[in-house]
Amino acid sequence: MRLGSVGLVARSFLLTTATLLAGCGHRPVQAAPAAAPTLQGDAAHPGTTQGWVRTELYFGLGPADHPDQGINEAQWRDFLDREVTPRFPAGLSVEDVYGQWLGKGKATPERLRSKVLIILYPGTDENRAKIDAIRSAWKQKTGDQSVLRATQPADVSF
């Protein structure tokens, strides 16, 4: 017996439907996944914050057009290890950026390879002093006139 095109379509539909329905049989119900681990609950990783701030520090590493001059990556990491991490061991972020700076008494801005250090922390006098110590250490190390600081309130949770 020969099936016409309508018969083939109907047969294909029935086979597909039967296959799909067979997959709808009884399956064991899986339990909901357990809650993911969390860092909340200690001073360094609070569930909610009050009085925290975000500080960005901008460090000039050297002339953008002369990457062989100024501070290299190894020297930068050494500075982080010696001056920053001991003061803020809970965490920080660093971004590579291009910057321009018009130095005191200069007519044109310097074009600089730069780093932005981002730290979130409780806004205490002790922590503000740590930020100032980092800035002072960099100026002493490099002879730079300034390390730009931008601080704003931050809502933080972990």
Q: SSE layout and pairings?
A:
Layout: H1 5-22, E1 52-63, H2 73-84, E2 93-101, E3 110-122, H3 125-142, E4 148-153
Antiparallel strand pairs: 1-3, 1-4, 2-3
Q: Which fold name fills CATH's third level, the topology of the domain at 52-152?
A: Alpha-Beta Plaits
Taking pLDDT < 50 over at least 5 consecutive residues as the criterion, the unreliable ranges are 5-24
- Output the helix-strand order: HEHEEHE
Profile the largest sheet: 4 strands, antiparallel
Class from secondary-structure proportions: alpha+beta
Question: What's the end-to-end separation, in Å?
Answer: 70 Å
Backbone CA Rg: 30 Å
- Portion of residues in beta strands equals 25-35%
Tally of strands: 4
- Shape, please? elongated
| CATH level 1 class label of the domain at 52-152 | Alpha Beta
Average pLDDT figure: 82
Helix percentage:
25-40%
Strands ordered across the widest β-sheet: 2-3-1-4
Number of helices: 3
CATH architectural category of the domain at 52-152: 2-Layer Sandwich
